[in-house]
Amino acid sequence: MSFSKTVEITETSADTRRITVTVNGTPRVVEVEPRLLLVHLLREGLALRGTHIGCDTTNCGACTVLHDGNPIKSCTMLAVQADGHEITTVEGLGTPSELDPVQEGFHREHGLQCGFCTPGMMMAARALLDREPDPSEEDVRWALSGNLCRCTGYQNIVKAVLWAADKQRGAQPAEEDAR
Amino acid sequence: MTALDEVKIGGLGASRLRVEDQRFVRGRGTYLDDIKLPGMLYMEIVRSPLAHARITRIDTSKAWQIPGVRLVLTGEMMAQRNLAWMPTLSYDTQAVLATDKVRFQGQEVVVVVADDPYIAKDGCDAVEIDYEPLPAIVNPEQSAAPGAPIIRDDKPGQTDNTCYRWEVGDREATERAFAEADVVSSLKLHYPRSHPSPIECCGAVADFDAGTGKLTVYMTTQAPHIVRAAVALIAELPEHQIRIVSPDIGGGFGNKVPVYPGYVHAILASILTGRPVKWIEDKTGNLISTGFGRDMYLDAQMALRRDGKILAVRMHADTDQGAFFADAQPSKFKVGLLHSAFACYDIGIGYITAQGHYTNKAPGGVAYRCSFRVTEAMFFQERMMQAAATDLGMDQAEFRRINLRRDVAFPARTPFGFLVDSGQYHKCLQVGLDAIGYDEFRREQAAAREKGRLLGIGISTMTEPLGAGNSREYDILGIKMFDSAELRVHLTGKAILRTGARTQGQGHETTWAQIVAHELGIPADDVVVEEGDTDTAPYGMGTYASRSTPVAGAAVSMAARKVRAKARKIAAHLLEVSEEDVEWELGRFYVRGAPERGASIQECAMAAYSNMPDGMEPGLEATAYYDPPNLTWPFACYIVTVEVDPETGVWDVLRVVAVDDCGVRINPMIVEGQIMGGLTEAYAMASMQFQTYDADGNMIGANYMDYLLPTAWETPGFELHEVVTPCPHHPIGAKGVGECAAVGGPAAFVNAVIDAIGDAGVRNIDMPLLPDRVWTALQTRQSVSGAPPVGRS
Amino acid sequence: MYPAKFAYEAPRSIQELLDLLARHGDDAKVLAGGQSLVPMLKLRFAAPELVVDINGVPGLDHLTEDPDGTLRVGALCRHVTLERSALLAAEYPVMAAAAPLVADPMVRSRGTMVGSICHADPQGDWASVLMALGGHIVAMGPRGKRPIAMTDFVVGPFQNALQPGEFAYEAVVPPPVGQRTGTYLKLERRVGDFATVGVAVSLEHSGGRVVRAGIALTGVGPATINAADAADVLVGKPLSEETVEQAARLAAEAAQPQADHRGSVEYKRHVVATFVRRGLARGEVVAA
User: Fold this and answer.
1) Which of B700, B772, B790 sits opposite C267 (nearest CB)?
2) Where is the signal peptide (chain C) (predicted)?
3) Which CATH architecture has domain B371-468+630-780?
4) In chain C, which end has fewer C-beta atoms inside a 10 angstrom radius, N or C?
5) Which chains touch B (3 or more CB pairs under 8 A)?
6) With a CB-CB cutoff of 8 Å, which residues 54-73 of chain C face chain A?
7) What is the rounded CA–CA span in Å between residue C108 and residue C105?
8) Stated pTM of the model
9) Could you name the CATH architecture of A101-169?
10) Residues C261-282: tens digit of each pLDDT
11) Position C189 in a domain
12) Is C80 a domain residue?
């Protein structure tokens, strides 16, 4: 069954295959139908609900995760394709006690409103900062150009990523307003 | 002891960081799709590929045969349960599943419920449906043409495709004013069909428990109590046995106000299968079938005196309602608050007529980030202002100055019946003009033109009525548009607050606590806010039309003040003085004349449960239902500059200046976030975001490849300014703000582009101002009107 | 959003891949970057019996230049690799201009140039680029490799010239005969949108004259359009206002646009001409 309901129904091995995907650093062995999308494996099979589904046509970026460190849309990859690869989701950012600078930046600069696009946006931002620790505003806008947000108008998202870059480099993040 | 610093405790005016962020940045929000109940089934919908057709055969037998398919629902099965049709929020009916005909592309025809959505989709593919195509009607002109096929032949007595007629104002006085005018300025405009398109689509998890008879529905709704009432009426279930829970909402913008067929399908499917049923729309389902906004045609004239004074306005609007009149709007006003147009200008006379048309298009007409068609009102108003100034040969800013209401002119009644109560319109305009450097830009523009470069500047000034309603005039389905808050202060001085509103990104969890902090001095961090569960929230009308702060926010204040009034009695008891001798400062009562003798609000809370005066009811909590005396009237001035590439028609935004007067700002950071979001939608409308239909009724804009939303790349930077005129009747002087920029902004962008190509004599380009339309206008020196043309498929 | 059922194979070598393709023929669909195929599967516009995932096949992700200047882009070379390539930035201005304009960053980190060309979307950017550069696709099948000129590769909308049993091994750009200039210009309603109009212009200069030229058009016909007549007028002489104007006119004539919500026929032809002019203006810079 597509949502990895291997407990209820035993499928013949022709219909499903066993894959090993390292998700947020932990190898996970799962049995999946070839047609299962990676995003459904993450959300339903592995109960990682932070990766969201926004559209059907690979346009919105809400489902962005890192695949071997590169940002991809998890709605546009089959789960079987992730066999032997490393996936990082929003749940893999930061630690329970300490936020990743990107998460902290989004909070401090009011880079989110409804929060639905936020995980995908943050993963795209994470990928940028991994590659380019000192991005310009233009770099940030370009790196996020595959992620749609309907609430914020992006300006604070851009500020959030620049804040995170400063924090990560050990530079003093931009002076906070009197908050 | 000194009084508390209000900003430090997160009170009014503090840019308090949002509490809801903590779960969202960790990916730990609970959106609808995150809800998974044991034994849950999944539902998918088979939609009509045709816009108008008679259904001649439905065969679901192959779908039933697929292992894992648990239920296949047809219109016939719905009809047997008297559920094939349901009421809309505009006193019309809407098909839940089609029985006789399909009336728009994407209409719900069959529903398949299965063990998982992949199988449900397999089931959908196995359903066979035969259609006999009928001619499709895709605009008001076709709809009103003699001999047009009757779309709503299901409605007894429906002899044409008109769904309403409405008028307001003084027709005769208007005619007289036009007869006396020096100049009459005319303009025809189209506000294209658009979709609110939150990134999260609509959905529901319906869970009927046959053991208790209780129906719980988790639902992407901005208005849970309205939905509960609607479900009680549609499904004939007792209201106390219905629980609607609105979880975290991934954006609403008006799209999540109506009751959609999918919700009803999921509920019935759960009742029939005895298991929870989840329905999540795909993006095409959302764009093709749920509440759109706008799609209005305007034919308007302005009567002018040569010196620039507006004598009267006359407007006729044709609205394209789609197949079912499903506007979510106050029942008294058939074309929403279109008649709020020109409220900021000192105009005594006007007349508006409107006609609604059924077409073979998706139903709706929701308040997409707006108060019920004020978006059209303000867009038309500000486009007419530009055209009139041009006709008079007058400067855009000067023409507005001549006609804007003076600060001393409040309160004033508009020709269409609204009472505007406050504002500093001239100051607001001036702040905007100074910020953009208006005169300097005009010089720059002239110099650039010499070199063949086309620069333009557009102004939009407007006041809009936010915060419906007052109960005299505003109701939805008969329910008056009040709102509510319930505040419980616990023993240790911590509190829980619930309201009848429902946040979808506006940050209620943060800002409501700030109002409590302001009223009681309880630190905002000590107040938890809960919304969205009809079993626990007080009855409210929900969040849309920028009504949360004006109505529910006011209720929060009033509930807190009730708590304070009781706490005062407790303080008198604790301080052993009479209540009249007790004074209040933030967070603390003290004895008049002896300020060192005091009792903090926390001490009062403790006493309310442990040491109350004799005869006093224990506890410290209050509920307030708030019926606002009037709407709130925020004012704004948006100014945009652009450069148009004459060779390609591509235009780039140079600067965007926004001056918003939304009264007292509870949380300036959140207010600014809302304004920037609204400006982005304004830019989107002006530049790229629209839905249209080809001659066969196929929707263009049914997915994100065709329905374009701006990204971080092209969205311009915003320069924000403020003017503060407190609302005279709101308890804390606040007004609505969330939609102002989306309402007033589009005209500023369009006016700027028209200004840039003004020398070509082009009067109008209807939105979206796609490059080809701008280029065509430049080439032909004529207006480009209507929806972008699309050939027959 | 939920694909129909299909079988899935992930070969580990080119031989395994060829065997699978030989066995399944037209029923098999090759999955490389998947940024066109997976969306088609999700929407159930495509429902192959077998998906052959080539991502595990070694030796297909190359981006190399032979000693003679031939550029080879393997079937698994991602857009992002091209976007960030110093070699392309220095030597292949048309490709360097096009690479960042394909879709969006996430699609570029996964999608491939060769896959995009095979998808044969009339609005795909890479086919025009490779066509303007006079390139070809190397098909590999049971009988080995064979080159298919770009001008022959796209046979119609979403149709390519690969035979059953074959897959696209690499895209090849021939060595230049002069100094390369050129660019790719794309009119899009928004970043990441499909092209309303795309124009690839590639020139090679020697001795103050244009010695080779290619102009190809995106989004203005049922398939990628090779504006050969437009390119031909440029060859054998220095760029002049006159030849540029001729090329612009001929390219506009070569376009076969349809009116739609992206623009009228007239507008699209006009943009083709404008972009040819602008593209050639950038081509003038010929520092020896």
Assistant:
1) B772
2) none
3) 2-Layer Sandwich (3.30)
4) C
5) A, C
6) 55
7) 5
8) 0.97
9) Orthogonal Bundle (1.10)
10) 899 999 999 999 999 999 998 7
11) yes
12) yes
